[in-house]
Amino acid sequence: MKQNYELSYLISPRLSDEGASDILRQVNNAIQEKEGVVFDSQLPRKFSLAYTIQKENEAWLQITYFSLEPAQLAEVEKKLRETKEIFRSLILKRKPVKMTPLMQPLTEKIKSIEALEPSQKVDLEEIEKKLEEILGQNELK
Fold first, then answer.
1. Distance in angstroms (rounded) separating the CA atoms of residues 100 and 81
2. Residue 56 in contact with residue 13, Cβ under 8 Å?
């Protein structure tokens, strides 16, 4: 059964934007070659490092979320170690994300609002009266 992971890695700042994106593609391809699925992988961003790594004060930071069979993870880690442009890497196990009402797609929320009947809609004057009542109670306390 596939496990969810988060991969963070630092890429040499000597590479251009395109070079860092090429490393990103190589890593994503390595995951996909092992029958993994990449969920999210944004473009690398350049950051200042807290301490020097290989005499560099900056590096490209890349974070990728993917799922993969645990037995195949060692092969991906090996690919990361073999890529000389990658300074450091860290792979963390992630728990599956459960969808909450706040995470529902926007279209579903719009449909649920449109489905409200007129009797369910609240009058603005009623809301204002209720707010005044609540605020008035808070001032007394």
1. 37
2. yes
67 neighbors 39 (Cβ within 8 angstroms)? yes
pLDDT in tens, 80-131: 999 999 999 999 998 876 655 555 555 565 566 556 555 556 678 888 888 8
DSSP output for 18-39: HHHHHHHHHHHHHHHHTT-EEE
Give the number of other Cβ atoms within 10 Å of residue 39's Cβ. 14
**Domain 3-94 maps to which CATH number in 3.40.50.410, 3.30.70.60, 2.60.40.1120, 3.40.50.11260?**
3.30.70.60
Grouping H, G, I as helix, E, B as strand and the rest as coil, residue 86 is strand
Q: What is the pTM of this model?
A: 0.65
Say how far residue 42 (Cα) sits from the centre of its chain: 8
Q: What residues does each domain of the chain span?
A: 3-94, 102-140
Residue 71 has what DSSP assignment? G
Tens of pLDDT, residues 9-30: 999 999 998 999 999 999 999 9
